[in-house]
Amino acid sequence: MYFLSWVKEPATPVLSRRGGWRIRGDAWLAGAWERRLVSSLVRKYFHVNPGFEDDPMVFHRVPSWSSEVDYAFEFHAHALRLGVAYYSLREGWVLSPTGALASLLESQGAQACEIGFAKHLKGKQVELPEECGGSSSMVLVRMGDYVGVGRRVGEGGRRFKIKDLAPRGFRKLARGGAEDVVKFNEQVLHESVREAVGFIKKAYRSIQGSGRVAVSFSGGADSTATLSLVAQALGPGRVVAVYSDTGLEFPESLSYAERVASRLGVELVVLEPTVKAVDLVGEKGLMSVEDRWCTRILKLEPLRRFYSSSGLKLYFDGARDYESFNRARTPRLGYNPLIPGVKRALPIKHWPRLLVQAYLYSVKIPLNPLYDQGFTRIGCVACPAMHLYELHLSFSKHRGVHEELVKAAGLGMEEYLRMRWSTR
C-alpha cells in the first residue's frame, strides 16, 4: 500500500508507505492532454484560465459510482486535492471541484460572490443575486475567510447549493520537474528497485537457470519499466523483448518499442498473427470485455507458438495490482493458463504507476508519446480495455481502422461510438 504527499518547494508528489492520501486506485503524473483537459473544464465552469497545462498534477483513479459514469479520477496539484473529473455517457466531461480549487482560483483573480458569514453552510442552499454566476452551472462563493463552490439548483434559477469550502489564500507553488520527482522519491525508488531486481534474479535462478529469458513488451510504461529492470538485473544479453503485434497496434508503439530495445541493448522480437482482425470481426463480432477473442487469437496464439519453439521457461510481465481487480488477484510468480509451459513473473506487481514513471525518469527512458495524447493504456487502436473517451480519441487519430471494423461488424458509426466495450 502506498500513500501520496507533496514537497511544496518545488511542488513535487512523493510516495511513501505511510502518511498522506492513501492510494486506493492507480495514481500517476498527468500527461499533457490530461492537464489540458482539467484546464479546459475549469475554464468551462468558471471562465478563468487556471494555467494547469505545465503544472505537475497527479491523477488518482476512483471507482465509478453510476452506470452513467465511464471513468473518473481525482486530480491533485500544488499540494492540494482540487476535485474530481469524470466522463459521463450523457454529458461528456464533468468537473466536481473542491473548495481548495475555489481558493486557488480566487488567488489567481477569479471573482467570488460574497454571501456573508454563516456557520455550517456546506450542503445548504443559498440564493445569489442576479449578477452572480451568469448562466454557469457553478460559481465561486465567499464567506468571510472561506471560499467555495456553489452548484446551481434547477435550470436558470438563482439558488445554489454550497458543495465545498476551504480557507482563502491557497496559491500556486513553484513547479517541480522530472528531476525533482526522482530526487524526492529517491528512498522509495531505491527500496522498490532493489526488491524488484532481487525478485528477478531469484526467479531466473530457480526457473531458467541459464540462457535467455523473455519480457512481454507492449511499449507501455509498465512493460518498459519491467524490461529495463530485467536488463539491469540479468544483463541485456540475456533478455529478449517480445512484442506481439496484433495488427491493430498504434503505429507509435512499435517505433517506441524499437527505440527502447535499442537503447537498452536487448533483442526485440516482433510476433504477428496469422489472421487479420477485420476478418475475425466479420466472423465473431466486435471484441468486448466479456469476450476478448482479440487477445486470445491475435496476441496469445503467436506467443504460444514462440514459447513452444524457443525453449524458454520464464517470461517477465509488467502487470500491476493497481490496474484492475483481476490483476490484483494474479500471483506474482505462476502460470498464465493461456500460455502453458512457461512461468510468468511480475516484478512491479505492487507498484502504482507514479512509481513506474519515477523509475523511468531515473533511468532516463522517455514515456511512450501516446500518454501525452490522452491514452491511459497502450494497447490496440480499438481495445476492449479502452474507456469511451479513449475510443473517441483513437477514432479521431485512426479513423480508417475503425471504419473497417465497423463495416465488418455491420454497425453504424454513430452506434459504434456510443457503445461501451463492456456492453458489446
From TrEMBL:
UniProt cross-references to InterPro entries, sorted A to Z: PAPS_reduct_dom, Rossmann-like_a/b/a_fold, Sulfate_adenylyltrnsfr_sub2
One GO MF term: catalytic activity
Phosphoadenosine phosphosulphate reductase domain sequence ranges: 213-385
Signal peptide start-end: none
Pfam family, one: PAPS_reduct
Taxonomic superkingdom: Archaea
Transmembrane segments: none
Name recorded for this polypeptide: Phosphoadenosine phosphosulfate reductase
